[in-house]
Write a structure and sequence with these properties.
The chain is an alpha+beta fold. It has 3 domains: about 140 residues, no CATH class; about 160 residues, Bacterial polysaccharide co-polymerase-like (2-Layer Sandwich), CATH 3.30.1890; about 180 residues. The chain contains 15 helices and 7 strands. The strands form 2 sheets. A 4-stranded antiparallel beta sheet has the order 2-3-1-7. A 3-stranded antiparallel beta sheet has the order 5-4-6, with no helix packed on it. A hairpin with a 5-residue loop joins strand 4 and strand 5. Helix 3 packs parallel to helix 14 and helix 14 packs across helix 15. The protein is rod-shaped, with a radius of gyration of 66 Å.
Length: about 550
């Protein structure tokens, strides 16, 4: 064995060429047989055809700045979802019955048919283009019927487009319906909070935080009114006291004092004060009190001084009027001595004014009580304002949060309605078939190129193996060099083969046979090449056409 390996390693190119030439039949015969068998298999094996179509995903036609799509799922995820719908048992069973697949396999179960068809369908996503668009392809393989393969692929593409439109519209409508239901729930909550807020405002009317300033102003006004009422009460009480004193003096004067008129008409007055005089004395006293606190330029001092001046002028007018009236009718109310009794009308007027002042005191006291009651109400409102403010803030905060949620959902629902309309009008993202499936002319199986390469490899492998066995495992000596190398003997002379009758004929027949075999092998080789480039069906069609001609 070691000698054989050494011999193999020491082979020269001319020796290899000599072996190939001598063993040429061992090479050409297995090659012709393997090529023949390969060609026979390529021509007789069942053919498997494949058809495919490419679908482009077109972006929505309406700019996303105007209408936002509700479909936010990933493209590959949507394609996988639609693929599962298309490759479901129901759809595949319909396709099998519609196109009559596996009719020659009556012994095959329906589940096996569906699984077999599902494995023959391939959905592949193509690489994205530079413009940002994307596409995917659908392919299907089946035996012996290229037209059927084409129709099924186009059917699958149509199903993909229909399912995409249905899925997009269903998802958009589902989102819109969900937003609508949530909007109704939020609306009910919002109306409830609005009612609670309205009831709270109605219940605490006048004590709300935004009415604090008005309450404070009202409280200041009530305090001023209370002060004025107290002053008026004091003044009225002083006037009552003064008037009671005057009434008492009038009554005494009626008993002890008379008014006389001198001969020149001058009236000697009794110490009886008229109403104007009473008011004069009262306001004069108030003016003196104010001058103790304020200057003469104070508005109240100026006003009261003016009133005192007017009352003084009125008193003078009354005196002059009384004198004239008395002189005009000197017999009215006089006795023989010439005395005139004090006027009973003045006493009556004073008593009447006293009753009026006492009624005024009652009214002022009642007014003071009402002012105190109102002051307590407004003080309570002012004191409760911080608490009301916290309660109102809590209610208002909940109301604002719910209202913000409602407005947000309302805006989203409007967007959803636009998106639904866009999907219904097919203005959103769509699938568009770029290349419809065409009739496949060249089967993908059997692969002529693989069969051809495999046949050549088998032919040369068998021939080379036989030559190796014959040459390197056979101890026979084929040439003189082997004698010198292997036996170590020197060759003195060699006798050439002796020719016999018929050797030339045998040699010529051998050459012709080898040429025929070589031509056959080249013909099969060429036929394989034609099959590989033209396809089996087209090649056979060309042969039939040529034969008929």
């Amino acid at each position: 064995m070691a000698d054989s390996q050494n011999q193999t390693a020491s082979l020269k190119p001319e020796q290899i060429l000599e072996i190939v030439t001598r063993r040429r039949w061992i090479i050409i015969v297995p090659l012709c047989i393997s090529l023949t068998l390969g060609l026979f298999y390529a021509l007789t094996a069942s053919k498997t055809y494949e058809a495919s179509t490419t679908i482009l995903i077109q972006p929505q036609k309406v700019p996303s700045g105007y209408v936002q799509s509700l479909i936010s799922t990933d493209l590959m995820q949507r394609i996988n979802t639609i693929s599962k719908l298309i490759l479901s048992r129901t759809n595949l069973e319909k396709i099998i019955k519609e196109f009559g697949l596996y009719e020659d396999r009556q012994d095959m179960y329906l589940e096996d048919k569906i699984d077999g068809m599902r494995k023959k369908i391939q959905v592949r996503q193509n690489s994205r283009q530079g413009s940002g668009t994307a596409a995917f392809s659908i392919s299907f393989t089946y035996k012996d019927n290229p037209a059927l393969v084409k129709d099924i692929v186009n059917k699958l593409a149509a199903l993909f487009m229909d399912e995409n439109l249905k899925a997009r519209e269903s998802q958009a409508m589902g989102t819109s319906e969900f937003l609508e239901s949530e909007l109704e729930k939020i609306k009910i909550k919002l109306e409830t909070r609005e009612q609670v807020l309205a009831e709270y405002r109605s219940k605490n009317q006048g004590a709300l935080p935004d009415e604090l300033e008005a309450n404070l102003r009202t409280l200041d006004r009530l305090q001023m009114q209370h002060t004025d009422s107290l002053n008026a009460l004091r003044d009225t009480q002083n006037a009552v006291a003064l008037l009671k004193s005057q009434i008492s003096r009038i009554k005494e004067t009626v008993q002890n004092t008379k008014t006389t008129i001198q001969q020149d008409g001058t009236i000697v007055e009794a110490p009886v004060l008229s109403i104007a005089q009473q008011q004069y004395e009262l306001e004069k006293r108030r003016l003196d009190d104010l001058l103790l606190k304020y200057t003469k330029k104070h508005p109240e001092v100026i006003k009261l001084a003016k009133s005192v001046k007017q009352l003084k002028a009125k008193i003078e007018e009354e005196k002059e009027e009384n004198r004239k009236n008395y002189l005009a009718d000197n017999t009215l109310g006089t006795d023989r001595t010439g005395f005139v009794p004090p006027g009973n009308n003045v006493l009556f007027q004073h008593e009447y004014n006293l009753k009026q002042l006492e009624n005024d005191i009652l009214n002022i006291k009642k007014n003071i009580r009402e002012i105190k009651k109102a002051t307590k109400v407004y003080q309570k409102r002012v004191e409760d304002t911080p608490e009301r403010e916290q309660e109102l803030l809590s209610i208002q905060r909940d109301y604002n949060n719910i209202r913000a949620s409602y407005n947000s959902l309302l805006a989203r629902r409007l967007e959803a309605e636009l998106s639904v309309n866009m999907e219904k009008k097919q203005k959103g993202e769509q699938f568009r078939i770029i290349d419809y499936a065409s009739l496949p002319e060249k089967p993908i199986l059997p692969d002529v190129r693989i069969i051809f390469m495999f046949s050549i490899a088998i032919g040369f492998g068998i021939g080379g193996g036989i030559i190796f066995l014959l040459e390197f495992l056979n101890p026979a000596i084929e040439n003189t060099e082997q004698i010198e190398n292997e036996l170590g003997l020197s060759i003195l002379a060699s006798i050439p083969p002796l020719s016999q009758p018929g050797d030339n004929m045998k040699k010529w027949i051998g050459h012709v046979s080898f040429s025929v075999a070589s031509m056959y092998a080249c013909t099969v080789f060429s036929f394989f090449a034609v099959l590989n480039f033209k396809g089996i069906d087209k090649t056979l069609s060309m042969i039939k056409t040529y034969i008929n001609i």
